[in-house]
Design goal:
Number of domains: 2
Distance between the termini: 50 Å
Bound molecules: pyridoxal-5'-phosphate
Structural class: alpha/beta
CATH topology of the largest domain: TIM Barrel
Strand content: 25-35%
Largest sheet: 9 strands, mixed
CATH superfamily of the largest domain: Alanine racemase
CATH class of the largest domain: Alpha Beta
Amino acid sequence: MGAGVLTRTFPRVDGVVRCGTTSAEEVAREFGTPLYVYDLDRVRERARAFTEAFVGVDHLLAYSVKANGNLSVLRALAEVGCGADVTSGGELYRARLAGIPAERIVFAGVGKTRAEIEQALGEGILAFNVESRGELDRIAEVADAHGARARFGVRVNPDVLASTPHRYTATGHAATKFGVPWSDVRALYHRALERPSLDAVGIDVHIGSQIVGVDPYERAVDRVLELGAELREDGVALEYVDIGGGFGISYDDRPGLDIDDLARRVVLRVRDADLRLLLEPGRALVGDAGVLLVRVQYVKESEGKTFVVVDGGMSELLRPSHYGGFHEIEPAGPSEGRPIRPVDVVGPICETGDFLALDRALPVPSPGDLLVVRTAGAYGFSMASNYNGRPRPAEVVVDGTEVRLARRRERHEDLTRGEA
Ligand SMILES: Cc1ncc(COP(=O)(O)O)c(C=O)c1O
């Protein structure tokens, strides 16, 4: 499933990086920088690849909205049949606005408020992924108060330590805040059997993010399916198993998770268990479908180091400084003849941690040059902030031959909106 050179999104043709039928430089001139650009055909292609891989079992792709909640992206995914995994009332609002049917939405997160539970019950979502006994009791209370029934699955902590690139992205081992400890799970389902407003319909697991090996998934699936069989014996009418997301992609020359291999190892197991399969891919659907375009402002030499100061940094793309995330960076135009040197690509924000790349061998650019930061479609804009009083960037989509604005650049008035 790795993108080969020929099929690469935003390919370099005749020395310039392209966005659909136009050049990255033209798009940047029209919409300004810093700028996020998403290729919707690539997003659809990735969703179809998952659907084809898992065709052997009744399944739902519940796209993880946190990766990229842009309405145009969500709408493209809705059109190819995706549901959504949301983590807040705000993401639920977005998903519904983009046309994702409520019966394809699951609601995750350790801190659901009463208002969010009411909102989700009002929408009639597929299920809550419950993270604690307190949350289950709260959902029951809210459902009782509204004469509603709440469908849910418990997010179990399988205590599987998957290798992820950063400790902040491992979630499936016992020492994280996520999920219900293995030893408490059955008691929670039994508690629900006594509450008429609760329908226990699923079992859920999510072991981390940017996982490139299939084995941890296989272990987690085996564990939850075994538990699922016990729960059925206890009288729980399970309909689905949700294996979460975290499917790793390629950020450099190392391959991402082999989705076909994952499907081969999971499909039969889930089908034999007579369950529907839910998957919550985020990054794997949108990551390589996006780039961040930044313009070089200054090239600064200091103590033998070269700093390339660009107009986007940690407020636009937090991954490098927060997770140590790697993004390929290259000039948007030709760079033959430029010396290649290790440089730090840094943003304008007043933090030493404000960088897009450190010690990266790049053709040394000049002020005014455009740089392409690749594989920025996931956890890019969705983690962007207004830190240092910076309006968030515009987002543009490439849809076939069309390039259109999906979200306008914020203005200074947007920074103070809502303040007294
Ligand atoms: C419960 C859950 N599902 C799905 C995802 C999506 O992860 P990814 O974008 O790595 O696929 C996350 C990410 O944090 C998550 O916490």
